[in-house]
Design a protein that fits this description.
The structure holds 2 protein chains of 2 kinds. Chain A is an alpha+beta fold. Chain A has 3 helices and 9 strands. Classes of the chains: A alpha+beta, B alpha+beta. Chains A and B meet through helix 1, strand 2 and strand 3 of A and helix 3, helix 4, strand 13, helix 7 and strand 14 of B.
């Protein structure tokens, strides 16, 4: 079994974005530059929020379209970025329909959620959590 | 502070020439931190003496601080300008996404000067400023203009959209600037300053990094602050019921201004309490960016259309303590839905809810007394608890079809100077009173507070916590409030939400500041608070303010407050003492 980040209840989100700051901070950068999470309103605050995190697909389209095999499949879902192979083509970002691949403009590389769960500690209202996932796929990395 | 912190970047925009530039000003941030401190220095630099608040010379200044986007609950931004409402220092704070967006766009402050010949909005993303034609938005309400800009601009999830409604365009002196639909630079008329510059909106986004001194310690201390915030009882209170939680306690304390402060209790308080709104209407709770509390409460109001069966509209309307006081108890509003309908319109036009309520309350009593008639009101009979008359009057205040509504569009102080009834005109320092008739602390606090806000020094809190137990000489009360106000200059310069004042304590600040690159001990911090206070006072006196020229509406002495034994002489003594204390300062 592996644990992966999941959105447990989107409607509980108040839009504080504490998770986004936590993600960047976890990577030793204060601010939002490194955040792999996207929280935004659904066309106005009155309608609530969409919380975009990597779903840890077992057969992830982002990896399938990568021309240099820089995105390696992980046991239990999701991908790991092998930075030196990545050419910054951004195909992965376009392939992810939910928009879970954020972009680092300073390095021109994707930012990939590693499912560490640090953001969950900073979700005050039970939106984010860790879910156990059965290991099905073949790990590459 | 740290050399590479983008906080030192100040974006200067000139609407007349449609140009912009960025200047690095470490001097300002090193000496005045950010927020209020930096904004008042910029106001001294940019605002010419005696300038007309609605002229191109009046600058709009936004400032954030070293804690913005660094620590939780540092969620506010500060605006400064010369107020068209009071003719003096205009300072108004706003949450939403405003603070984080400015900081993440790579700025510590923004200065907007000049005026545009056609309606524009500013689009500020990743170091680029665009002047965009807003002609097709002119005349639109806050909701629609926000939606259209949202659909046309980048940066979802990262942007603030500050905009005005029609009240700003028609220069109502208490027009607000609305951000993220439900938060405001509410008081002092920033919306009219926007309108005078033909500036419909400002949208800002970014995703910057902030340097810190000690990354490991930063993560540790962040967690401490965050945990303290989410576990504190104050935070729970504001998450559960929001600021509206205060309606019933204030009513029990007999300190909630009602029907133009003819009374200080409201017999129908139960119907418009925080509990009643939560149980019957609460549809959603929201947070300002980087604040886990989520104190913003949004009611869902479902109304049938009268011309067709099973045809409804559902409107989401924000409520808080102060709007419930001003548009609720102050206007005798006994039906929560009537309050929500009025609130919704006030939001649509972009008027400050607090001021609007007090203006309408004065008009109602002025009409009762025969100071004005239906000739002036254009057929409206103001009536306590009647939302239709108030909604119609708001529209006329915005449109200003006659001299009376032109006067109302400039506030209670001005209208009563023309039509009489100044003893029932509830403005203090020319700003309409907040929802506290708790005792001398509340009124003295607003009178001596440098932005005439109850949050300057929280005098209402001194009434409820200290004066209920013991009497204070006016001099002692003034000094207590003075001490608190100087401390709050620090909080509003860092900039943290005042709700978090119990977490951002004097003991914690040196370590937090060290992480942001400031080497300051408690004495240094105290001195900076004093300096910022004095700079604000210096601006006020420069523009003609005097503590001994303040007007007292008689009503505040006539209606009994829970704290007894104070009168006009008491307040005069307190203000006289303050004047003497400040006269001794070397900087003023």
């Amino acid at each position: 079994m592996a644990t992966r980040l999941a959105v447990l209840e989107t409607e509980r989100c108040v839009g504080c974005q504490s998770c986004m700051f936590a993600c960047s901070r976890r990577q030793e950068v204060a601010g939002l530059t490194k955040s792999c999470i996207g929280v935004r309103s659904i066309g106005g605050m009155e309608r609530g929020f969409t919380v975009i995190v990597c779903r840890a697909c077992s057969d992830p389209p982002c990896a399938r379209v990568c021309p240099t095999d820089a995105l390696l499949l992980r046991e239990g879902g999701g991908v790991r970025l092998e930075m030196k192979k990545c050419i910054g083509c951004s195909h992965c970002r376009e392939a992810c329909l939910i928009g879970a691949i954020q972009w680092d403009d300073t390095t021109n590389k994707p930012m990939i959620c590693i499912h560490c769960g640090y953001c969950v500690e900073f979700c005050p209202h039970g939106v984010l959590g860790m879910r156990k996932k059965e290991v099905k796929g073949h790990a590459q990395g | 502070m740290l050399r590479d912190d983008p906080l030192v970047n100040i974006l200067y925009i000139d609407l007349s020439s449609r140009t912009f530039e960025v200047k690095r000003r470490p001097d300002l941030f090193e000496n005045y931190l950010g927020g209020t401190g930096v904004a008042i220095k910029l106001l001294h630099e940019e605002c010419p003496r005696d300038c007309d608040p609605l002229s191109p010379e009046n600058p709009i200044i936004f400032a954030v601080g070293p804690f913005t986007a660094l620590f939780p609950l540092a969620s506010k931004s500060v605006s400064m300008f010369k107020s068209p409402h009071t003719g003096n220092l205009g300072e108004s704070h706003c949450g939403g996404r405003s603070a984080v967006a400015i900081r993440m766009a790579g700025y510590g402050a923004i200065v907007i000067k000049g005026t545009s010949d056609l309606p524009v909005y500013l689009s500020i993303h990743s170091g680029r400023v665009q002047f965009r034609d807003a002609s097709s938005l002119w005349g639109m309400g806050c909701f629609s203009s926000g939606r259209i800009i949202r659909e046309n601009e980048p940066g979802p999830g990262l942007r603030t959209i500050m905009r005005i409604g029609k009240a700003g365009e028609t220069l109502v002196s208490y027009a607000c600037v609305t951000t993220e639909t439900y938060r405001h630079f509410g008081r002092m008329g920033l919306g009219a300053v926007f309108g005078s510059k033909k500036l419909k909106a400002v949208v800002i986004s970014g995703k910057s990094a902030i340097p810190v001194v000690d990354k490991k310690q930063y993560r540790k201390i962040y967690k401490e602050i965050y945990d303290a915030a989410v576990k504190s009882p104050v935070m729970k209170k504001y998450h559960d019921l929001g600021t509206a939680e205060n309606i019933l306690p204030l009513n029990r304390f007999a300190g909630i201004p009602t029907r133009n402060l003819k009374e200080a209790t409201f017999d129908k308080a139960d119907a418009i309490s925080g509990e009643a709104f939560a149980e019957q209407y609460l549809g959603r709770r929201l947070a300002c960016t980087h604040c886990p509390v989520g104190c913003i409460h949004i009611a869902a109001l479902r109304e049938p259309y009268e011309d067709e069966a099973y045809f409804y509209k559902t409107t989401m309307i924000s409520y808080d303590y102060e709007p419930i006081y001003a548009l609720g108890t102050m206007l005798g509003m006994t039906n929560p839905e009537d309050f929500l309908k009025l609130m919704d319109r006030v939001e649509w036009w972009g008027m400050d809810a607090m001021t609007t309520g007090v203006v309408l309350a004065w008009a109602t009593e002025a009409q009762e007394r025969g100071l004005i008639s239906e000739k002036e009101t254009m057929g409206i009979t103001f009536s306590w608890g009647d939302p239709i008359s108030y909604i119609n009057a708001c529209r006329l205040i915005v449109e200003q079809p006659n001299e009376f509504y032109k006067a109302l569009a400039r506030g209670t102080e001005h209208a009563s100077s023309l039509y009489g009834g100044d003893d029932i005109a509830l403005s203090l320092g020319k700003n309409e009173m907040p929802g506290y008739h708790t005792g001398p602390g509340a009124h003295l606090g607003v009178l001596m507070g440098l932005r005439h806000s109850h949050l300057d020094n929280a005098g209402y809190s001194v009434d409820q916590s200290k004066l209920v137990k013991t009497q204070m000489d006016p001099e002692d009360l003034a000094e207590t409030l003075f001490y608190e106000e100087r401390w709050r200059q620090i909080l509003s310069s860092l900039v943290v939400c005042f709700f978090a004042r119990g977490i951002y304590t004097a003991e914690r600040l040196p370590e937090l500041l060290r992480i942001a690159g400031f080497d300051l001990n408690p004495e240094d911090i105290g001195r900076i608070g004093q300096n910022i206070y004095e700079e604000k006072y210096r601006f006020k006196t420069r523009e003609g303010f005097s503590l001994d020229k303040l007007r007292f509406p008689k009503r505040i002495f006539e209606t009994p407050s829970p704290i007894k034994a104070w009168d006009e002489t008491y307040l005069r003594r307190a203000l006289g003492h303050m004047k003497a204390v400040l006269a001794k300062s070397s900087h003023i």
